[in-house]
């Protein structure tokens, strides 16, 4: 039997690193299992459409060209409706 001796400070640092690794592994596992949500935030929507103007986004919502849902001040956009909009309007 082999006995390994750690200084208290080194042991605590190792413990914190292991906890961090376990937390990250758990987050990754949850992310892999969770289905991709159809609802995206404004920032995520901007990655799909090239529009940066909030006025343009308001026009798209008003005309019903994209599907959105609003909870208080938070607006979520349907990822599929954004993809359909890109396909139908040939936006690059």
Number of domains: 2
Return the string of H and E elements: HEHHEEH
Shape: elongated
Q: Compute the gyration radius: what is it?
A: 23 Å
By helix and strand content, what is the structural category?
Answer: mainly alpha
Strand portion, in percent?
Answer: 5-15%
Our count of helices gives 4
Biggest sheet statistics: 3 strands, antiparallel
Mean pLDDT: 88
Oligomer status: single chain
Kindly report how far apart the N and C termini lie. 66 Å
Give the strand line-up of the largest sheet.
1-3-2
Total number of beta strands: 3
Low-confidence stretches are: none
Level of helix content? 55-70%
How would you describe the overall organization of this protein?
It contains four helices and three strands. It is elongated. The chain has helices spanning 8-33, 42-48, 54-62, 79-89, and strands spanning 39-40, 68-71, 74-78. Strand 2 (68-71) and strand 3 (74-78) form a beta hairpin. The chain has a three-stranded antiparallel sheet. It is mainly alpha-helical. 58% of the residues lie in helices and 12% in strands. The protein folds into two domains: 1-34, no CATH class; 39-89. The longest helix has 26 residues, at 8-33. The N and C termini lie far apart (66 Å).
């Amino acid at each position: 039997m082999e006995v390994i001796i750690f200084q208290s400070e080194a042991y605590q640092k190792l413990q914190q690193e292991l906890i961090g690794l376990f937390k990250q592994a758990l987050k990754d596992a949850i992310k892999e299992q969770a289905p991709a949500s159809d609802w995206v935030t404004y920032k995520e929507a901007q990655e799909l459409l090239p529009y940066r103007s909030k006025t343009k986004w308001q026009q798209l919502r008003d005309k019903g060209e994209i599907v959105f849902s609003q909870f208080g001040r938070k607006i979520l956009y349907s990822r599929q409706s954004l993809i359909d909009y890109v396909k139908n309007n040939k936006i690059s």
